Automatic annotation (TrEMBL):
Protein name as annotated: DUF4386 family protein
UniProt superkingdom: Bacteria
Keyword vocabulary terms for this entry: Membrane, Transmembrane, Transmembrane helix
Transmembrane segments: 12-30, 42-66, 73-96, 133-154, 161-180, 186-204
Keyword Transmembrane helix among UniProt keywords: yes
Species for this entry: Lysobacter korlensis
Length: 228
């Protein structure tokens, strides 16, 4: 099979859509974040689904960014890097949830409970050091990255601009999470999942060739050359 830019772009679109679907599904089936849940099959399934969400999401937004790289400028680059950092963080933390926590839960249940508390809203007690700031870091990357990247998508309109607005609005809506119970607050993620599905479809359905922007004055030079 010959790899082409078009095929890679469509593959990135599929990855973004799958990532969004996984992100939404996880919110509905996530087991209680307790020590007892760590060794259950449901925990393993959700943890690996979240790893896949992060990896596929990173592939997907990379495709979106590269499709609009010329038009999005610095704003698009900043949004891509920050939101990509959130996706990497989600994948890495879920990898720990899938492989590390079940292996240590018998010998160190308190450590497992402290790690689970990073994202479940448990008050920090200093036992995990700098790791306890991970939720704040991820929250900031999610909010800022989604907002900036979404606005860059809307501004360039290379893929669906309204999907970019949904991504930006969904990211900002995470400000509501501290005001809601943890089990309810997780559903604030649904708009971002829908935005990823929409962006993925828009990227997959895009049949245009690479968009280029002519340097200032180039059109006038071409006109003069044609006249001569």
């Amino acid at each position: 099979m010959t790899l082409t830019t078009s095929k890679l772009t469509r593959a990135a679109g599929v990855s973004a859509a799958l990532s969004g679907l996984l992100y939404i599904t996880v919110q509905f089936i996530h087991p209680a974040e307790t020590v007892a849940s760590i060794v259950t099959p449901a925990w393993a399934v959700v943890a690996w689904m979240t790893v896949a969400f992060g990896v596929l999401g990173l592939i997907g937004i990379t495709g979106v960014y590269l499709r609009q790289v010329t038009q999005s400028g610095l704003l698009g680059l900043i949004g891509f890097l920050i939101f990509g950092t959130f996706l990497l963080t989600a994948a890495a933390f879920s990898f720990v949830e899938a492989l590390v926590l079940p292996a240590i839960v018998k010998d160190a249940p308190q450590v497992v409970e402290d790690i689970l508390g990073i994202f479940s809203g448990a008050p920090a007690d200093g036992s995990l050091g700098a790791l306890e700031a991970l939720s704040t870091f991820a929250f900031g990357a999610y909010l800022t990255g989604g907002l900036v990247f979404g606005l860059s998508i809307f501004r360039t309109r290379v893929v669906s601009g309204w999907a970019g607005i949904l991504l930006a609005a969904g990211s900002v809506s995470t400000l509501l999470v501290p005001l809601l119970p943890h089990t309810v607050g997780r559903f604030v993620a649904v708009p971002v999942g829908l935005a990823l599905i929409w962006l993925g479809y828009s990227l997959w359905a895009d049949r245009r060739g690479p968009v280029t922007v002519s340097p200032p004055g180039s059109a006038a030079r071409l006109d003069r050359a044609a006249a001569e």
